[in-house]
Amino acid sequence: MNRGYKLLLALCLIMLIQPFFAQTVKFLLSPDVLKPGEKGVIKATLTIPEGKKQTVNPKNPEYFYLEASHPDLSFGKVEYPKPTNIISDEEWNYHPKVTLTLPFTVKQTAKAGNKQVEVLLSYNLCYESGMCDPPEEATKKLSFQIITTEAAEGVVSEETEATENIEKGETSPVSEVDRAATEPIAKRSLGEILKYILFAFLGGIILNITPCVLPILPIRIMSIMNQAQKDRTKVLHHILVYTFGVLISFTIMAVIFIALQKAGESVGWGLQNQNPGFVVTLMAIVFVFALSLLGVFEITVPGMNTANKATSKGGYSGSFFGGIFAFLMAISCTGPFLGAALPFALALPSVLMLIFFLTIGLGFAFPFLLIGIFPKALKIIPKPGNWMIIFKEVMGFVLLFIVYTQLKTLWLLTDGNYLLNVLWFLIILGFASWLYGKFVRVENSKLIQWLFTLISIALVIFAAITYLPIPKADKAEVQVQSGELIPAPNAPEGWYVFSEDILNKALKENRAVFLDIGAAWCKNCMTNEKTVLFTDTMMQEFKQKNVLLLRGDFTKKDETLLSWIKKHNRAGVPFNALYIPGEEPYIFGELLSKDEVIDALKKIQAKTE
Fold first, then answer.
1. Half-sphere exposure in the Cβ direction for 347 (13 Å, CA)
2. Phi–psi pair at 357, nearest 5 degrees
3. Which phi and psi angles does 515 have, rounded to 5°?
4. Which of 52-66, 168-182, 446-460 has the lowest mean pLDDT?
5. Which of 121, 464, 564, 583, by CA, is between 20 and 30 Å from 295?
6. Which residues contact 179 (CB under 8 A, 6 or more apart)?
7. Inter-axis angle of helices 190-206 and 350-373, to 10 degrees?
């Protein structure tokens, strides 16, 4: 194995194991079976990585606290343990683990039944040097049961034993995170699991024809076709390397989701579109590829004539990174096509979740595998000619259009000033790419090639440091407790901002509620609203049934909305539900139709009259 492949393998291994070294949060509720008037505790244990610490001011714990909310519980003050060391009266430090305790009492008015309480831990880790990471939050819904009979006396919950083990310094045998991941599987048959795995495979195939991937698909096919003209026996080899790049990418994604799941974080699909850093990174990659297709530069390695010759003969690295790039383009379109299967996957145990994502990758690479197995299929593709150059340049403009759509998404996530900074970054990135393509050529000396490589890299780093720091987002406004209806922005008259209090109040008043949670970057959400929900016909239907219309904006990260979505076993947006007093909520699919919504509204009359 040569040095290049060893380096690539090491890089992949680092990317795979890195998430496991992050901090972890585990929540426990004890006991989980209670009667009105009984007391319990919620505990959050934060495991802190080596080299970091959790600092807190005990007089004002602004960034390190535990809170929970439930109408049947009254909560006391958070209890902080003895610190690892005390710097002063206003600075306590914890390492390598700290557990916060939140006591609660079940209200006498609480009704019997299975309940869930939403818990949030806010923490702010710092390095030994004094530099601190931005504040982070971990949330979890913990299950418990309220009973009114005497039969439950003496019940000892598994959570109680787990809590005692933690207090003794032992490892908890069953965590809430593990239970949440394994319980849904016990309720599903092998046939249902296989059905969702099939959905994942078919969804991966469909990804090839989405607007996110289709522009680059012909480019990869042309690359394979060029190599086939020289040696058709290598077609399958390139296809397998391309597939390996795809599978590595989906494996990394699966590992990230598994790590988040283990850490107790809220996992939702589409959240990458809420992260300005992700959007800018993907935009920069697409922009550089567009410049390459338009002939501004070609990707070469300075001073590596031997490697250049090997690439011209085999080009396996191009096939590998082609698979990775195709994956990056595909993930923005994954949610709408796999919406039915993703909530299921995110509740799977780690091994099955990994299999699920690998199945998506296999489906994504399947058309190419067919070409590799049956190379005669390449005959249906026109022979190389000048049309390929024209087509390649047209694809460059298509990628620039994708950059434009990503700029629109960034506008929704940040503000105009940050958008201007990103545009300046892209200009400098383009100039650096031009310098690289102009001077990093095999005909130039090694000194010239390495000099302009370093200059290009330095320009990009300078631009990123100068223009790309993401502005601190303002904390989201909290819905007033009085239940005041606030008109929803970017919606017709009659739609109001969602809050759980308003929804519950309407249901108590025997009024049905329709909830629409969407995002400006979600194409299906926009389609549902323009063609169904916001139309005059549907607004009239809602009015006739006296339906309260609530809308949640998920364009930017909102933990409250995400918790609500996951409470209904969904993984992302669009989320549409009809709540009728006395009935289970009716959850709609990804794409709405007027007939489906009208049929659901017909159930209201008998319940509300």
1. 21
2. -70, -35
3. -115, 130
4. 168-182
5. 464
6. none
7. 50
Q: What pTM did the predictor assign?
A: 0.41
Q: Per-residue pLDDT for 133 more than 50?
A: yes
Give the span between the Cα atoms of 213 and 200, in whole angstroms: 17
Residue 407 CA to residue 422 CA, distance in Å, equals 9
Q: Which structure tokens are listed for 31?
A: 């006991």
Regarding beta strands 513-518 and 548-553, do their DSSP bridges make them parallel or antiparallel, or are they unpaired?
parallel
Domains, the chain, in order of start with CATH, read: 22-174 (2.60.40.10), 189-413 (no CATH), 495-608 (3.40.30.10)
For residue 33, give the 3-state DSSP assignment: strand
Q: Which residues contact 127 (CB under 8 A, 6 or more apart)?
A: 51, 52, 53
278 CB contacts (<8 Å, ≥6 apart)? 272
For residues 243 and 254, give the distance between their C-alpha atoms in angstroms, rounded to a whole number. 16
In which residue are the tokens 């969407």 written? 518
CA distances from 339 to 100, 306, 414 (A): 36, 47, 27
* DSSP string of 460-516, one letter each residue: HHHHHHHH-PPPPPPPPPPPPTT----BPTTS-TTEEE--HHHHHHHHHTT--EEEE
The tokens for 40 are 């319990």
Helices and strands of the chain, counted as H and E runs: 21, 17
pLDDT of residue 134: 65
Q: With H, G, I as helix, E, B as strand and everything else as coil, classify residue 299.
A: coil
- In the three-class reduction of DSSP (H, G, I as helix; E, B as strand; rest coil), residue 211 is classed as coil
Q: Which residue has the higher pLDDT, 257 or 476?
A: 257
Stronger pLDDT, 263 or 60, i.e. the higher one: 60
pLDDT tens track for 312-358: 444 677 778 778 877 776 665 554 455 445 555 656 677 888 888 89
Average pLDDT of the chain, as a whole number: 74
Q: Which of 433, 408, 581 is nearest to 509 (CA)?
A: 581
